[in-house]
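Sample 3 of the quickstart, ligand calcium ion:
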Amino acid sequence: MSNNDLTNVILAAGKGTRLKSSLAKVLHRAGGRTLVEHIVRACGPLKGRETVVVVGHQAEQVAAIVEPLEAVTVLQHPQNGTGHAMLVAKRSLGRAKLAVVLPGDAPLVRTETLKALVTAHRNGNAAATILSAVLADPSGYGRVVRKSETTVASIVEESQLTDEQRDINEINSAIYCFTLEKLWPALAQVKPKNKHRELYLTDAIAVLSAKAETVLVQVAADSREVLGCNTRADLADVDRIFREWKRNALMDAGVTIQLPETVLIDPDVTVGEDTIIVDPDVTVGEDTIIEPTVQLLGKTKIGARCTIRTGSVLTDAILGDEVTVEPHCVVEQSRLDDGVIIGPFARLRPNNHLKAGARIGNFVELKKSTIGEGAKAMHLSYLGDAKIGTKSNIGAGTITCNYDGFHKYPTSIGNKVFIGSDTALVAPVRVGDGAYIAAGSTITENVPADGLGIARGRQVNKPGWAAKKRRDLAAAEKPKKTSKRKPRRTSRKRK
Ligand code: UD1
Ligand code: CA
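Result:
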């Protein structure tokens, strides 16, 4: 169905007093995104004329998030309620006939649900259609007072409920479809008759109903979709649901997740490249195993048959197939090709490329480095601004000294190079293919291919030196002991 007569309106100007935060409510995050971003994205596929976001508190920050998603903003100042927010949006709605109106704080709503709402609205030729939900605990929400089996008389806010209405467990999601030529005259009759002296959009429902306009209600199939975020506890609940949906999608596509409730995966993370599931952006490689307490963040992409072991945090990482991330690794903006093994306890800072079969062991830190195919750095090293060739071996404790306090310099190590343990490579420096570096060297000059670089004091062995030292020490001790004791005894006897 074409929706070129429809505009989306997101009400996102409020402060969110109940969060007790200096950050505007819609800028809080759940499920890896700000609340408002989730909602703009859910509206996008409706393909309406445009998405108008009403902004107020921290308007610039909200605009900075929604404008790149092709939404337009309109400023509401001061914020005199959801009805007032709608009036502020009016001039931006152009020739739209219908509006899908959403709050900025109910981020779980799905596009399919919005599409069904619009369809019900069109089919029923309604003035307004409300998305409702039936909740076990409806407290905090406006309640839907029905007029008939299918129509609504009014929405009553929590603060204005009568005793009988308090038991109604069908709540207003604050997601609606309105026929605008019916909404405007109804909204004009709404008065700010509540204790906050705000104009409530919800009060327009009773006005429409009293005018014998059709107000329909559509019950959300999954009541979790309409949950709003008024408090920190609400944010945590909503985050938990997003994370569960994301994990379930990956598990459905063949990823093993152990103790799934402990694993955090951001919405843009993909695992594998073969199988396409629900959302076309989400792809999944079969038989990857994700152990407990792993976090996969940002735009991380993981291939098939990988193992991401416990406690590892991957942000914007790209992994090929059969990669193993041992426990407690931290990986940022790095590429790990097929068969790479890292960790336990490896730290990959941004911009590394580990080529097929490379191995990075415990307490190794990498930054802006390329590790060649099958190359290894297994223990206690820092490799920064370094290029390491195929099958080279970096010994324990190797350090690239890439910074002189002013600038950073590169280190280049060829193919099949052997760097002995505890080597300091003072950059800029190059080590040619097939070269050896003796352990404990401080390398300040280039080492030619197939050569040996050795830069340390020459060892001298002195036979018998230790034994003689021990004898000398023992001899020096003895007379001291006797001379101390003797005078004491004599003095006692004299007394
Ligand atoms: C609102 C509904 C309530 C519904 C609940 C669902 C009203 C009066 N009540 O209550 O029936 O059950 O949502 O979650 O609408 N906003 C503005 N400008 C304003 C005031 C609010 O843009 O002047 C925005 C807020 O930023 C927020 C949204 O409107 O994103 C809803 O406001 P909020 O204060 O959260 O309303 P609720 O009390 O939750
Ligand atoms: Ca709310």
